[in-house]
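To: structure desk
From: M.T.
Subject: fold request, one chain
Message: Could you run this one when you get a chance? Sequence is below, nothing fancy, just the single chain.
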Amino acid sequence: MEKIATKIPGVYILEPRVFGDHRGYFMETYSTAVFEEMGFTNVFVQDNQSFTAQKGTLRGIHFQNAPMAQTKLVRVTKGAVLDVAVDLRRGSPTYKQWVGVELSAENKRMLYIPRGFGHGFVTLTDDVEFCYKVDNLYSRECDRGIRFDDAEIGVEWGIDSPILSEKDTKSPHLCDSDCNFIYGEV
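Reply: Done. Structure tokens follow.
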């Protein structure tokens, strides 16, 4: 597996080795030994999967406040998305900066997003299956979101009128949220 740095330290693109022949392909998407070799020591405790029917659907920007913050390892098994990680750690040299990566069933890339980051994606195709591992269990009490179009962050989603959930339409701007991430503490 190849570990590729992004413009934000701690956020990585992971490209698995894919072995293919006339029957199809095989790839390893997760191995504790390989991840430890790459410097990742997280213990993933929950796997999640979502399905999104329509192109142009935006999910996010989501996170869980501490003490239930989550590292995420995300990938797409069908279709394609623009996946976004936003640094929400007050005091970080990259605070409010974001990185976007196209993840697709075709390119088989994954994105590693550490604790202290918000996460979202917009579907680039219909019928998207999105999978992710997290290193902390879901907590309704700590579940949070911020506006996908927060001008302080300025994510370039590539879409003017995304399809949103009710939750995402009601999410606050970062300046109005109770996000509790502090650089060096998450």
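Reply (cont.): The helical segments are 32-37, 166-169. Let me know if you need anything else for the meeting.
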